[in-house]
Write a structure and sequence with these properties.
288 residues; mainly alpha; MetI-like fold; 2 domains; 87% helix; flat; cell membrane; transmembrane helix
């Protein structure tokens, strides 16, 4: 009786474990550890943001809000700008140049970078132009852009393009050199076509550097969008910032600057989410 009872007990204990192993699901301990890590990361982020906002609020209260408004006054001013029809037209006017110039720079930058990265002769002959474009301060080229294109949307698009294109092209050139030559040779030996080599070997290996370069280029595109508006073409968000600066309206000035920061954070966050989704997709393609 004792032996049969122990066998029955053993069977009843081991059966769920066998079923769990066949199911192939992750152990609950790993899920809990992963959730704990995410909670810790978000706790650190929220604590850092709370510290910055707390210092901001304290400085505004200490100085009386003349030069540094409190965070609460800034948020109230931002809400009022949104209600009064000031914020959204300025956002749209600024982002027209971003919506046109950034995709064009991404497409052309990737094409040029891929060619330079895979054709060493072309790289040696022409890559120094990208190095020059990356070194030259783009702010110094803004007056040249204005003289060439005038105070138009085209000038703002060209400025965004010049701020972005060198970063995209240089990162793409470096990214397509990352995959191992042995992996490419093995894929070719198994009968893979050039397109299949790109789809299953080169792009999955280069995805992370490419998206990193895209995020950096996005930040530079936003900078170029605002810089040209602050310097020579007072339009959109930059023009509104100049107006509030001349009026010594600190809450409105900080509110418009906060709008630029929030837009940058949202766009970079979307780019990060897209990066993770595409990399997961490419990894699945490379395994398949």
């Amino acid at each position: 009786m004792t032996t049969s009872s122990s066998v029955q007990a053993t069977g009843t204990v081991q059966a769920p474990a066998t079923t769990k192993g066949l199911a192939g699901g992750p152990p609950s301990g790993k899920i809990a550890a992963r959730a704990k890590r995410k909670a810790s990361v978000w706790a650190v982020r929220m604590a850092f943001i709370a510290a910055i906002l707390g210092v901001w609020q304290w400085l505004g209260i200490r100085d009386g809000g003349l030069f540094v408004p409190t965070f609460t006054d800034t948020v109230v001013a931002l809400i009022e700008q949104a209600r009064n029809g000031i914020l959204w037209p300025a956002v749209w006017a600024s982002n027209q140049s971003l919506l046109i110039g950034f995709p064009v720079s991404i497409v052309l930058g990737l094409l040029v970078g891929f060619v330079l990265g895979r054709r060493r002769g072309v790289d040696r002959a022409s890559s120094y132009w990208l190095d020059i474009a990356l070194v030259v301060p783009m702010v110094a080229l803004v007056p040249v852009i204005i003289v060439a294109f005038g105070l138009t949307l085209t000038a703002r698009v060209v400025a965004v393009f010049l701020f972005t294109f060198p970063v995209v092209a240089l990162n793409a050139r470096a990214a397509v050199r990352v995959p191992s030559a042995q992996l490419e040779e093995m894929a070719v030996s198994f009968g893979a076509s050039p397109l299949q080599v790109w789809r299953t070997v080169i792009l999955p290996g280069a995805a992370a550097p490419l998206f990193t370069g895209t995020r950096i280029a996005l930040s530079r595109a936003i900078s170029g969008m605002i810089v040209i508006e602050l310097t020579l073409i007072p339009a959109g968000l930059g023009g509104t910032i100049i107006k509030y600066t001349s009026q010594f309206s600190a809450p409105n000035l900080y509110a418009m600057t906060l709008a630029v920061v929030l837009e940058g954070l949202i766009l970079v966050g979307l780019a990060t989410w897209l990066e993770r989704a595409v990399i997961r997709r490419l990894k699945g393609v490379s395994r398949g």
